[in-house]
Amino acid sequence: MSESSAETRQLLEEARSAGIKLWVEGSRLRFRAPPGSISNALKSRMSASREDLIIALREEANHQVSEAEPAANQLGLWFLQQLAPENSAYNVQFSIEVFSAVSLDSLNEAFQTVVDRHESLRSIYPAVDGAPVRRIAGRVPVAVEVHDVSDRSDDAVRGFVIEQYRRPFDLSKWPLIRLELFDQGNSRSILLLTAHHLVVDGTGLFVLVEELLATYEALAAQKSPPAPADAATFSEFVSWQSEALSQDQNARRYWSDELEPYPAPLDLPSDHARADVPALVGKSFWHRIDGELSTQLQAIGRKSGATNFVVFLSLWFAILHRLSAADDVVVGTPVSG
Hints:
By secondary structure, the protein is an alpha+beta fold. The chain contains 11 helices and 11 strands. It has a 4-stranded mixed sheet, with helices on both faces. Strands 3-8-5 form a 3-stranded antiparallel sheet, with no helix packed on it. A two-stranded antiparallel sheet has the order 1-2. Helix 5 (104-117) packs across helix 7. The radius of gyration is 25 Å and the shape is globular.
């Protein structure tokens, strides 16, 4: 260890002894400290040693790997991905058309900053003894993937973007997120952010995109990016969820007794045999109902204290009953949170 490195390590120890937390986001040194814990002398030394502190903290982070339990809902999602590991059904994406020049350096730094900031984006989910473990890296280097598509038509570019979005992730390898720039020339491009649903959910995706763009805009203007919100980490959420579930054993036992044994799958009329492995290919069917019928359905919901979703779910149960003559039907529905 060099003399300067020894001095930097000593400075880090002093800062941490004072209750100061230091970390790196992109190329910037961040810290959080209790009120009055930073003396003017210590602040001056930290400022003068900023670059050395960043190097030391990155070296530490590069060797930090911790393991934690996945969230309860992640267990089911991980299992479903194992049924079709090459399927991209659980990729989430956000794409943006850009009609101005893009600073690749600023975009790379913004991407690294956001990944440094969120432990969820530095997590992978390898199997250990047949069950998933959440493995968190202290730092995961990332970079924007750039594709020159200036010689392709707009339709060909869009097809290529969809193709890239559908690339599956290996849940045992970092990172489970990627950012791609499709350069169409003449200051036109498409920015595609893709992540596995294990690390980003639907609501989080929009927060992530807003944070990425705000950070990029600040860096491109040579300004300091906005400070992160003082929010709970994903590990803190998992701990809260685990505690909440453990305290609710009575409710879990009630519903287990109420629902078991589960009814057999419905024997519905179909035009082909049920697949052994889910194809994970879905479609949407759109139908517009008139205002009078909509009003009547909403009135039924208000009378029963039910949302529109529950009203339509009840209609779906009724249809399945008519088709199968089964009195007991199990239907899966998506949930948020």
